[in-house]
Amino acid sequence: MKWWTRTALWRCALYFLITVTGMTTAAYFSVRMPGVSFHGTPASLTAQDTALRAQLAQHVAMLAGTIGERNAGKLRMLNAAVTYISNAFRQSGFAVTRQEFTYAGLALGNLVAELPGTTRPAEIIVVGAHYDTVCGTPGADDNASGVAALLALADRCATQRYARTLRFVAFVNEEPPFYQTEDMGSLVYATNCAAQHADIQAMLCLEMLGYYSDAPDSQRFPEGTGWLLRRVLPTTGNFIGFTANARSLRLLRRCVRVFRTHAQIPSEGAVLPEFLSGMSDNWSFWQAGYPALMITDTAMFRNPHYHESSDMPATLNYDAMTRVTRGVETIIAELATNNDEQ
To answer: pLDDT tens digits for 296-315?
Structure first.
């Protein structure tokens, strides 16, 4: 082999090694979060937790069992979900505002329950989840699980007082064909907030919170990224994920730290490219310039029932959902009460 050929090969190998090392290092720091993820056997649910578990299961059973598929193509069922969610907010003591807009002559809407802040009411924390489903699925995990947590959190926060204003929002039209279009309910909402110069400090998107597995290799990764992400993230799908874009890193780190301080369920946080980290309503708030993150069981990268007719209430882990909801409650209290920090 000629010396210059050998030199060129060594140079290519060196460039490859530097590239792989750089990507691995970047991946490591994108998932390096404060606190320690929970490990071991969690304590048994308390009486209060058991009541929360029953509340979550009841909401999922109604939305994904009794009502079932709910979208603009199944308008009667979509409206049944609107009635159920609105009544649940009202039973918790909220006045419900419907932000209505029209699609193809149909009146659709986002549902908003607001708890005014005491000392900094102009500063707003939004907690949101979409209540529609993709065609052909009852949507227990996607996204009755998120709506169930939204309603339970609103109920638990309703009797508290926070410095900042809390808004609990149930969004319509997250699923295709509306996803990332001007008719996506959360984009309508976030755009309107920006037009009104609303001071949204943070948005928490509750997107699929109910599916967990202790089986080896039950956690999958996007095609083309598995070789890298498997080195920095768990391959067992028993954790709840927090993900955001780089602009929301401060919010992401803060939320993961608080969650890990209180919650008895494994958790992972990551800054990922927006085509992965912006797969739900948090994307809409990024478009409007607001910090936002998604809390998720990672959807199609774990749940075999994703967007299938088999996405039924019985497939969910309600103990894990309860622990996640309790953890998110502590995040809400932190964001609505304390000043921003690293």
So the answer is: 999 999 999 999 999 999 99
Q: Which tokens in the block code for residue 185? A: 């309910």
What CATH number did the domain enclosing 293 receive?
3.40.630.10
| Amino acid (1-letter code) at residue 307 | H
Confirm whether 17 is domain-assigned: no
CA-to-CA distance for 151 and 70, rounded, in angstroms? 17
In a domain, 7, yes or no: no
Q: Six-digit token pair at 239? A: 């954790």
Our count of domains for the chain comes to 1
Top pLDDT among 222 and 333 is at 333
Interatomic CA distance for residues 190 and 198, integer angstroms: 9
CB contact at 8 A, 72 and 106: yes
Residue 246 lies in a domain: yes
Predicted TM-score (pTM) of the model is 0.91
Summarize pLDDT for 268-307 with one digit per residue, the tens: 999 988 888 999 999 999 999 999 999 999 999 999 999 9
What is the β-pairing status of strands 120-130 and 164-171?
parallel
Residue 290 domain boundaries: 32-337
Mean pLDDT of 116-135: 98
What's the full length of the chain, in residues? Answer: 342
Rounded CA separation 235/213 (Å): 10
